[in-house]
Amino acid sequence: MKLSNINTFRAFRSRDYSLYLTGRAVSQFGAIMQQTAVVWVVYTITHSAFMLGVTTFAEQFPLFLLSLFGGVAADRYSRYRIVNITQIASMVQAVLLAVLILTHHYVVWEILALSVLLGIINAFDIPARQAMIHDVVYEDGDLASAVSLSASTASLSRLIAPALTGIILVKWGAGICFLINAASFGGIIVSLLFMSRPKNAKIYRSDKKVFAELAEGFVYIRRTPAIGLIMLMLAIMGLLVLPYNTLLPVFAKIVFQGDAATFGYITSFIGAGSIAGTIVLASLKKNAPHRKILLGFSVVLSVSLIVFAMISSFTLAMIIAVFVGFGTVAQFTTSNIIVQSESAPQMRGKVISILLMAMFGTLPLGSVIVGAASQRAGAPATLLAEGVLGLVIVLIFYYLMKNQLRRKDTPRVDNPNFNS
Q: pLDDT, tens digit, for every residue of 394-407?
């Protein structure tokens, strides 16, 4: 029996998607290693939870500022070429970071500046890369499987890469982690060379000015409230709940009295839960009630954060961390499935960029807020508050989505003559 005949893996019917996923998995592994190492380096220099929030802010805030332009580019130009360019640029950024660390000529502002550079690159990479999933699957029915399996590679990386990063940090230092990340970008660059369909994917050329196209995306969202509510929920979760990972180094070092390896283990167990979550999402039927699933996973995340904040046993905390990861994965992945399935093809890049802005615009601001709150109230109390707020958000959006939750599926707004 072929793997692609199993519902979970039906996206593998496409050779191009298999290449896409393989290359992305290699690249994602290196990216998670770099993220883990950067956070740890900044914390060991500053010993400040607030600076952890600033570090996350530095990389993710450019996504808020520029992802809309990345979405316009993804609709106007070849996504294949955009991804090629951004992968090469990301490789250069990782090499520069490695050189700074290995030559011991670095201070915090230099690390933050390179994080900002990576955020700018990602603002153009992520909309093009996410929209390209549609270019490499055979049919729309395979989209949920494709998006979920793509998310599972990130989850698998979060399971393995942080623990390996912790070991490398202890034995060889952060510079080696950054060199490994630089090399990992070769995976997706090579995979792109062997793809066929993305090279010939339809490009929706427009004579409109860039800012007119940006406005068009927001008008489309306003006229499609079924998508708009999903984005609003994701934005609020990104501001108040999802920045919990800002506090993980504090839990590792202060609450559990550990080191870099402890931090790596916490992140890895969260990654294990994320993998389980993505497998569940990939296994769903084509007409699955994704909005109900999003709310259900959000409840799991919120309750898990509350429990994690209240326990001191490291072993028990790792069990709870699995549930934290399980609940976390649905936030962007399920929202992405809904948005990509229900948006019109010529608007997809712009809509995805607004989705990214909703999450990555609020997440860095939330990281700063959470870091500052932790300085005053402590990490456990702050995490507890995030979990409680998560439950409140679920209740509010359950009420707002009542009509949508009664439907099994929401028809896609697919008007090629859409005009703002």
A: 999 998 887 776 65
- 52 closest CA partner among 120, 115, 117, 125: 115
Residue recorded with tokens 């300085």: 375
Q: Count Cβ atoms below 10 Å from residue 56 Cβ, excluding itself.
A: 26
Residue 132 pLDDT: 85
Q: Write out 21-70 in H/E/C secondary structure.
A: HHHHHHHHHHHHHHHHHHHHHHHHHHCCHHHHHHHHHHHHHHHHHHHHHH
Angle formed at CA 41 by CA 36 and CA 44, multiple of 5 degrees: 125
Q: How open is the CA angle 402-404-405, to the nearest 5 degrees?
A: 65
Quote the DSSP letter at residue 208. S
Superfamily of domain covering 3-405: MFS general substrate transporter like domains (1.20.1250.20)
Over residues 94-121, the pLDDT tens digits come to 999 999 989 887 788 889 999 999 999 9
Residue 322: C-alpha distances to residues 24, 107, 108, 265, 399 (Å): 23, 35, 32, 11, 28
**Residue 326 and residue 300 in contact, taking contact as beta carbons nearer than 8 Å:** yes
**CA 58 – CA 68 distance, rounded (Å):** 18
What is the C-alpha separation between 88 and 97, in angstroms, rounded?
A: 15
Phi and psi angles of residue 288, each rounded to the nearest 5 degrees, phi first: -65, 150
Crossing angle (nearest 10°) for helices 108-136 and 314-342? 50
pTM: 0.73
- pLDDT one-digit tens code per residue, 4-40: 556 677 888 888 888 988 998 899 899 989 988 998 8
